Amino acid sequence: MESVLFYTFATLVVTTALLVIFSNHPAYSVLYLVLTMFGLASLYVMLHAYFVAAIQLMVYAGAILVLFLFVIMLLNLEREGEESFRSGPSRWLALPLTLVFLVELYTVVMQIHIKGSKGLSVEGNTESLGHLLFTQHLLPFEIISFVLLAAILGTTILSKRNWK
Amino acid sequence: MYFDIIIKIILTGVVLGGALNLAGLLTWVERKQSAVMQDRIGANRASLFGLRILGLFHPLADMLKLILKEDFTPRYAHKILHALAPFVSVFFALIAFAAIPIGNDFAWRGHAIHLQVAHINVGLLYILSVMSMGVYGVVLAGFASNNNYSFLGGLRASSQMISYEITMGVSIMGIVMMDGSLNLQNIVQAQGQYWHHLPLWGIFLQPVSFFLFLTAAMAETKRTPFDLPEGESEIIGYFVEYSGMKFGMFFLTDFLETVLASALLTTLFLGGWQIPYLFHDGFHFPWGTVWIMAQPWVILLGVIAFSIKVIFFCWFLMMIRWTLPRFRYDQLMRLGWKIMLPISLINILVTGLVMVLL
Amino acid sequence: MIPLSYYLILSGILFSIGVLGILIRRNAIMILLSLEIMLNAVNLSFVSFSRFSGNLEGQIFVFFIMTIAAAEVAVGLAILISIFRNKKSVDTDYMKSLRW
Question: Domain boundaries in chain B?
Fold first, then answer.
């Protein structure tokens, strides 16, 4: 049962991710990426990371990708077709290089042996994560808010047309 | 195992059937309500075998009309996305009902039965994320129609929905802080406590949060003071290019979201299925009277109370819809970002301070 | 129980797809999207490590990565829009000048 679910979601994630990078219209890419996010959220649920799964849907699918779609609509990019892919040698080198990278990752992953409690007790629910976040990781949590503030300011300044 | 699955299937049927039927009925309620408020009689012509019963057959007639109408796709539309958008809208409006508890937990023949389709501990986050997903239906409709008016309508609608989503999420944090759980069932159970015989419902604990959430929920459902995305008569909305049942599905989504907003308001602020002074073994009134009741009746009363509260909020939202005029777009944005969001943040701060000091 | 290596390989495949996307596309929006795929691949491996080592720190990392990703997308898209205003294109091959 579990492996059936895993293979279903893994196939969903990989196919939609491939469709993201190969589709012609950016809007379609964003929509396929939404499906990828759903697949990933399902995988997170299988890994008992409920909070991360909910946040994944809320932040990625609900906010970030809507922002992408918004910008694509604003810029009104026409169907670009073949010319939005790179031409020349870099295009034909990309696939072999990626495959080499993948093989490399595979050999590294095969050497990983995790010691420890095999983790069957860890539940990533809101309470336990919130507790960790507000005790052990309080400083990074506060600093992150400054990163967000900087992003807000930067975006505002960048989107002003004539900044005086 | 099989027993649990059957129970869940029945529960899903009850919840979906209830939500869809209520949403369908709301089309009739809205026409009648507007008629009453404008001193008219309203829809009363549809009849079946000579029976009119206050025009209650009108939703059926409307449905039949929408199904039989021509389903027209514009020539330059993105065909697949154009067909997909209404389904996306309805889908996300429907699955959000999964985390809403319609009654208390109870045990029957050794099985624990949760009257909540999905008993998950991030229930509130789930509902918020699914509601934020509803924006895709709108954006897709605007984008796929390939028409400038629907495109602008889509941009308008999606920026409104994104803006008010934030206030909606932030405003309920006060409730979450006080009850210490994101599972809606736990939140409802926590509202069964009393302070000097006053039931500790969310509306008494967090009145500011209640009004913020009510306003944001109206903006999310795109009802009248905030109906710029649609504006049937003047500014054209994102679904101009839709006809027949696809248009009907956008319409249905609106009413489904009204039902969802009412259910959420009930669960978070009006104690869900709680009835004041009704405990698990019957009524214990503050003046000392005690009515002992069997458990099934207590559960049933809870479900009935939940339904009545939801219907009350549906009616309340309808009444606001026919009372207030529409905002201008800049007023809408100013209200969302400069007034409601700061107030909801201050509300969290004050709640936290009070909780620390007490 | 699915072993850890399955999740890691899935994460590796996803990451490679992101790399491939960055290498073959010219449109800047597509490059940002591929970046998102790569970030999500990393998130997946963090969550699976967290599950299999019995330690929630991995999910805390995912939380921080998502925050950074949100900030990155907001700023990146704002830059893209201002580039589009000046060049009328988001093609990375036309972004050659260091100032204008």
Answer: 66-357
ipTM of the complex as predicted: 0.89
Q: How far apart (Å, rounded) are the C-alpha atoms in residues C2 and B189?
A: 37
**A147:C71 CB<8 A:** yes
- Contact across the interface for B182 and A73, Cβ inside 8 Å: no
Is the per-residue pLDDT at B134 higher than 90? no
| Per-residue pLDDT at A142 | 92
Q: What's the pLDDT tens digit per position in B193-214?
A: 888 878 888 888 889 999 999 9
Radius of gyration for the alpha carbons in chain A, expressed in angstroms and rounded: 20
* CA–CA dist A77, A80 (Å, integer): 8
Better pLDDT: B296 or B95: B95
C74 touches chain A (CB under 8 A): yes
What dihedral do alpha carbons C53, C56, C61, C65 form, nearest 10°?
110
CATH T-level topology, domain C4-93 = Helix Hairpins (1.10.287)
Domain count, chain A: 1
- Using the Cβ of A119 and the Cβ atoms of chain C, whether some distance falls under 8 Å is answered with yes
> CA angle B331-B337-B338, nearest 5°?
80
Residue of A nearest to B157 (CA): A70
Q: How far apart are CA B270 and CA B265, in angstroms?
A: 7
DSSP C27: B
- Residue A65 in tokens: 């990708």
**Binary contact (A102, C13; C-beta < 8 A):** yes
Whether the per-residue pLDDT at B52 is higher than 90: the answer is no
Cβ within 8 Å, pair A94-C20: yes
When the pLDDT of each residue in chain C is averaged and rounded to a whole number, the result is 87
Residues in chain C with CB shorter than 8 Å from the CB of A94 are: 20, 23-24
Chains A and B touch (3+ CB pairs under 8 A): yes
Is there a domain that residue A124 lies in? no
Instruction: Name the residue in chain A with its Cα closest to that of B85.
Output: A31
Token digits for C50? 């967290």
Question: CA A44, A54, C50, A127 torsion: positive or negative?
Answer: negative
- Alpha-carbon distance B153 to nearest alpha carbon in chain A (angstroms): 12
Asked if B182's CB is within 8 angstroms of A126's CB, the reply is yes
